[in-house]
From TrEMBL:
Keywords: Iron, Metal-binding, Oxidoreductase. Belongs to the carotenoid oxygenase family. It comes from the Bacteria. Its cofactor is Fe(2+). GO terms for molecular function: carotenoid dioxygenase activity; metal ion binding. InterPro entries: Carotenoid_Oase, Haem_d1_sf. It comes from Desertifilum tharense IPPAS B-1220. Binds 1 Fe(2+) ion per subunit. This is Apocarotenoid-15,15'-oxygenase.
């Protein structure tokens, strides 16, 4: 791999590629639920592209005019774009969680948000109220014939695949015990269950020490393995990585002071502080369910997302988006007025852990501001060649994600398709071509907020050559607020002909 000396095929723009006022329009609530065939299309939907693109994210950023303090506190809205025979259908539904239903009935905020949203009435109205609202807003997964809306602090909500209507909380056939969560970043190991796919996910119970519990489920949703390990210290972990023999967690160097939260002065997320003098600990847990974890310190940084990991002899390689520090949530700040220039960007790093020598090395492999990495699903946990990410339009500095970046680790080539200056991209979802086994044969699907029309487009890119530009651009009738994560299901969930 040649991480820095690369062949670039980027457009060049000497001016700033975004306007903060235009970008902030993607954080307006979308109170409406839609159900329609997409008729306004530029280009042509590939005939081989059949299945359902699922997206989840906060759809409501206010309740009856009362603004939320942070988008991560917003109620989950599921979007499903179903592709069938060259046509596409859009449907969105809110997850009818208990909290969503109660707040819509009351037309006011009834719950404190993890990232700073408070009930009206000041600290007295919020003190010692520890009841969390399960907002089901982070990811959407179809597994074991169940459609699950995920939020990492609680159980998932089950939805009807054909309509997106909410069924209710789901304990996954009794796998989840009372108080168990089911994280929002599961991995599908393509051959982890005797050659068959299996789902790997985790939950955390944290405090002065933390317990990590790993679940492995077969394709029918039945439990294959459940194993737990305790590690010292507080854990703030959003994502993890897998290889055939290990689960890998990055314990970010942060502390949590519960006093302001308990006294009703701050949200829990506002009480998390980065500790640059402490190392980031890489926790390696064997998937055999028996052996104890190993912990490897590395210089401080903050990791939200991992691109992939793989084994090379006695060495683990983990590719991760790393920040210089945790982007702390400041009380009374307005998330629509982010000063991007004042924040350090997320960048791609490779961490190598030698399990025998106990040595850890790290290397900056992509300096461009980037997030939401995605690989071919058959390469999860295995050596891979191609990586796709959301990225900034410019090669340096911090900025909103306006582009899709493709990295070829074998040749060092980077390709970048940009929606700037008016477009803002979401996580790229890679859809493999059903007949072509090449690793980059298929399509990249991304939802792009078009600030010039205050609407969203579903953009289809040829994954083998981003330089071609969009194969098709599907114009929706409305905007989708900036989302978090999504998935592709090769089945036609919506029952469309």
């Amino acid at each position: 791999m040649n991480p820095i000396a690369v062949k670039e095929t980027f457009p060049v723009n000497p001016q700033k590629a975004y306007q903060r006022e235009a970008w902030s329009g993607g954080y307006e609530s979308q109170p409406n639920e839609y159900d329609y065939w997409i008729e306004e299309i530029e280009g042509e939907i590939p005939a081989e592209l059949n299945g359902t693109l699922l997206r989840n994210g906060p759809g409501l950023l206010e309740v009856n005019g009362q603004q939320l303090a942070h988008p991560f506190d917003g109620d989950g809205m599921i979007s499903a774009i179903a592709f069938s025979q060259g046509r596409a259908h859009y449907r969105n539904r809110y997850v009818r969680t208990e909290g969503y239903v109660k707040e819509q009935q009351a037309q006011k905020i009834l719950y404190r948000g993890v990232f700073g949203t408070q009930k009206a009435g000041g600290w007295l109205a919020n003190a010692f109220d520890f009841k969390l609202k399960n907002i089901a807003n982070t990811n959407i997964l179809y597994w074991g014939d169940k459609l699950l809306a995920l939020w990492e602090a609680a159980q998932p909500h089950s939805l009807k695949p054909q309509t997106l209507d909410t069924i209710g909380l789901d304990d996954l056939q009794g796998i989840l015990e009372e108080g168990d969560a089911f994280a929002a970043h599961p991995w599908i190991d393509p051959r982890g269950n005797d050659g068959e796919p299996c789902l790997v996910n985790f939950s955390i119970k944290t405090g002065l020490s933390s317990t990590l519990t790993v679940f492995e489920l077969d394709t029918q949703g039945k439990l294959l393995k459940r194993y737990s390990h305790s590690v010292p210290g507080f854990c703030f972990i959003h994502d993890f990585a897998i290889t055939p023999h290990y689960c890998i967690f990055f314990q970010n160097p942060v502390s949590f002071n519960p006093v302001p939260f308990a006294l009703g002065m701050r949200g829990a997320g506002e009480c998390v502080k980065f500790q640059p003098q402490q190392p980031t600990n890489i926790i390696v847990i064997p998937r055999n369910g028996k052996d104890k974890p190993q912990i490897f310190p590395t210089p401080a940084g903050f990791v939200f997302h991992h691109a992939n990991a793989f084994e090379s002899g006695e060495t683990l390689c983990i590719d991760s988006i790393c920040y210089d520090s945790f982007p702390e949530v400041e009380p009374d700040s307005d998330f629509r007025q982010v000063d991007f220039d004042a924040l350090s960007p997320g960048q791609l790093w490779r961490f190598t852990v030698n399990l025998t020598s106990q040595m850890v090395q790290r290397e900056l492999t992509e300096p461009r501001c980037c997030e939401f990495p995605y690989v071919h699903p058959d390469k999860a946990g295995l050596p891979y060649r191609y990586l796709f990410m959301g990225a900034a339009h410019e090669s340096t500095g911090n900025a909103p994600l306006q582009a899709i970046l493709k990295i070829d680790w074998e040749t060092g080539e980077r390709q970048l398709w940009s929606a700037a200056p008016q477009g803002y991209v979401s996580e790229p979802i890679f859809v493999p071509h059903p007949q072509n086994p090449a690793e980059d044969a298929g399509w990249i699907l991304t939802v792009v907020y078009d600030a010039s029309h205050h609407r969203s487009d579903v953009v289809i890119l040829d994954a083998s050559d981003l330089n071609r530009g969009p194969v098709a651009r599907l114009h929706l009738k409305h905007h989708i607020p900036y989302g978090l994560h999504g998935s592709w299901v090769s089945e036609q969930l919506m029952g469309l002909g």
